[in-house]
Amino acid sequence: MKNLKKIITTAVLLVSVIIYAQEVVPETYINPLDIDYTYMVYNSSKNISYRSGADPAVIEFRGEYYMFVTRSFGYWHSTDLINWEFIKPKQWFFEGSNAPTAFNYKDSLVYFAGDPAGYGSILYTDDPKKGEWTPTASITKNLQDSELFIDDDGKTYLYWGSSNKHPLRVKMLNKDDRFLETGVEKELFNLVEEEHGWERFGENNYHPTLKEGYMEGASMTKHNGKYYLQYAAPGTQFNVYADGAYIGETPLGPFTYMKNNPMSFKPGGFANGAGHGITVKQTNGQYWHFATMALASNAHWERRLSMFPTYFDDEGLMYSNTSYGDYPLFGPNHPTKAGQHSGWMLLSYKGKTTVSSSQIQVKKSTSAYDDYDITEMPLEKNSEGEIISKLLTDESPKSFWVAASNDDEQWVKIQMLSPGKIYAFQLNFHDQESGIYTRTEGLRHRFTLEVSEDGKNWETVVDRSRSYKDAPNAYITLNQPVRGKYVRYNNVEVPGNNLALSEIRVFGKGIGKKPEKVKGFKVSREEDRRDASFTWNPVKGAQGYNIRWGIAPDKLYHSWLIYDVNEHFMRNLDRDTRYYFSIEAFNENGISDKTEVQEVK
Questions:
Q1: Residue partners of 419: CB distance under 8 A and separation at least 6
Q2: What is the distance between the alpha carbons of residues 499 and 493, in angstroms, rounded to a whole number?
Q3: Between the N and C ends of the chain, which has fewer C-beta atoms within 10 Å?
């Protein structure tokens, strides 16, 4: 009996040691958000089929969250801001919704507007989870990019505008009488491109002929008695699509330009853009800014969604943290670092990649002329006769590879430059002549993922071979990290006629050294004070660099992540603002110390 007790005690201790030795992997998410984006009908007459998600309106209602997205023929529901389930409503606008607005009025009713025809019918419900909505009669017209805001006193305001000429406007409505207009209407403000570099039209805020950006996407946040009216510029298809804010003492203004604008800006890295969004307050008090990212590969209106933590500083300035914003980020329920970079780095960058077959491989980017630079890659094979792809690990979402078919004979193999501990994967599927339009049920992405240390012995770490999940930007974290240098994607079935991918991204922790601190960092503001040039000495072993800047040494709210190069040029500064700059290097092993902050007048 005593021996039996000893055996049991020893077994319990061993189990305890094993459990204790296991790493606690934190909850994370990544941008673009991993949801089942809807196929669009914008270019269906041209047989261009693609998914898109844009112009999010996110609200908290009775402790849960609802997300409304342009032309999605429904909306999403979540309890944690990470996992979203689509709700198909019983009554909705015939063409979906366009640049929607939603408002939670005192946890009693949700009001919604976004008729693509521009008419002012406002829907309402007390049970959005059930999907039953009641419409009001149309009360106004020309309501593109509208924002409905009901103040604590019940007074109701409608902001709207989408133009490269006209300003944002506001009108007052009577919530208790079908939202009829009260007669109070006011012009508010417009873009001032000659002062605000980030408002200039074009990729990287440059276009050779068009100078006026588009002002759109009004959104109102009330915080500590002040009114933050947010707006988007300069165009949804560009990497510099951003949200700025004006601050007022009343919902009607007057409004003052916020000196640290834009408040949401992500011009660099893999996924670009952070404009036309909405700021929502989590039940724990943390703010989040949901925004639109510019994929713009099949068409300029091909977009995705993002979520960034948002704050108000000691001056009452509103800002979002988008640094490393397309890397794994701590989940919204993290006690101290919600939305911040998890520390998992990109292991797969420039990994040697081979594929099962190749119908076409296209290198693509947005040009300065608001069109595309396109290169069809020649077919290349390695010494073993395998087809090479240089596009699936290049950190470009616009470039893509298309397999010869859509079956279980298709695969992708990546040999990473260095081994590491793998924590997560992001699979970015591409739509290539999919032939799918509007909201389509029953779509699914089925595949497996394998990891190997030597390229010969493989371990299956993800099995979605029988999954019913539709995940065009699938983000998958492992329960426990695995060590590996090789990753293999094995296809089973995806939507469309052919398997197509734009990027496979592998995240984790490298086993080497992080880069040294950057040296020789020089910043020069140009004759046009909206522009600045940067140079620095290359850092050995660095994948890339992250430039940070802001209006004070302790307010470096902006960042621009770039790969490979040791120079940069930006056109997004405010002409009359003094800025402070710093830079850091990064690789698969971590991030270097930041350089000393430089003041540049």
A1: 453, 483, 484, 485, 510, 511
A2: 8
A3: N
How much is the average pLDDT of 64-74? 96
User: Residue written as tokens 């197509």?
Assistant: 500
Which amino acid is present at 442?
Answer: G
pLDDT digits (tens, 9 = 90+) for 346-360: 999 999 999 999 999
Query: Using CA atoms, how far apart are residues 306 and 33, in angstroms rounded to an integer?
Result: 6
Other beta carbons less than 10 A from residue 97's beta carbon: 25
Q: Taking a C-beta distance cutoff of 8 angstroms, is the pair 331, 286 a contact?
A: no
Handedness of CA 529, 530, 531, 537 (dihedral sign): positive
Give the tokens for residue 303: 């977009």
Give yes or no for a contact between 340 and 322, defined as CB atoms under 8 angstroms apart: no
Say which residues have a Cβ less than 8 Å from residue 222's Cβ, sequence separation at least 6: 149, 151, 152, 228
Alpha-helical (H) ranges within 286-425 are none
Q: Kindly calculate the radius of gyration of the chain based on its CA atoms and give it in whole angstroms.
A: 25
CA angle 249, 193, 531 (to 5 degrees): 115
Structure-derived torsion over alpha carbons of residues 546, 550, 554, 555, reported in degrees to the nearest 10: -110
Which tokens go with 54? 């844009």
User: How many angstroms separate the first and last alpha carbons of the chain?
Assistant: 82
Q: Which element (helix H / strand E) includes 475? A: strand 473-493
Angle at 473 between CA 469 and CA 478, to 5 degrees: 75
d(CA 582, CA 252): 38
DSSP assignment string, 284-305: TS-EEEEEEEE--SSSTT-EEE
Sign of the Cα torsion 32, 336, 265, 527 reads negative
In terms of Cβ atoms closer than 10 Å to its own Cβ (0-12, 13-18, 19+), residue 430 is buried
Give the pLDDT mean for 114-140: 86
How confident is the model at residue 20, as a pLDDT?
A: 41
Residues 231 and 20: their CA atoms lie apart, in Å, by: 49
Long-range pairs of 105-113 with CB within 8 A, sequence gap ≥ 24: 105/150, 105/175, 107/61, 107/62, 110/59, 110/61, 110/66, 111/148, 111/150, 112/57, 112/68, 113/143, 113/146, 113/148
- Residues whose CB falls within 8 Å of the CB of residue 422, separated by 6 or more in sequence, listed in order: 347, 451, 461, 478, 481, 482, 483, 484, 487, 506, 507, 508
Report the C-alpha gap between 114 and 69 in whole angstroms. Answer: 10
Name the percent of the chain in helix, strand, coil, to the closest 5: 5, 40, 55
Residue 437 pLDDT greater than 90, yes or no? yes
Strand, coil or helix: what is 5? helix
Instruction: Name which of 107, 100, 88 is nearest 38 in CA terms.
Output: 88
Arithmetic mean of pLDDT, 45-51: 91
Which of 21-30, 400-409, 509-518 bottoms out in mean pLDDT, i.e. has the lowest?
21-30
The Cα–Cα gap between 574 and 237 comes to 22
As given in the structure block, the two tokens for residue 581 are: 């700059």
> Which among 168, 184, 187 has a CA at the least distance from the CA of 245?
168
Cα–Cα distance between 98 and 307 in angstroms, integer? 20
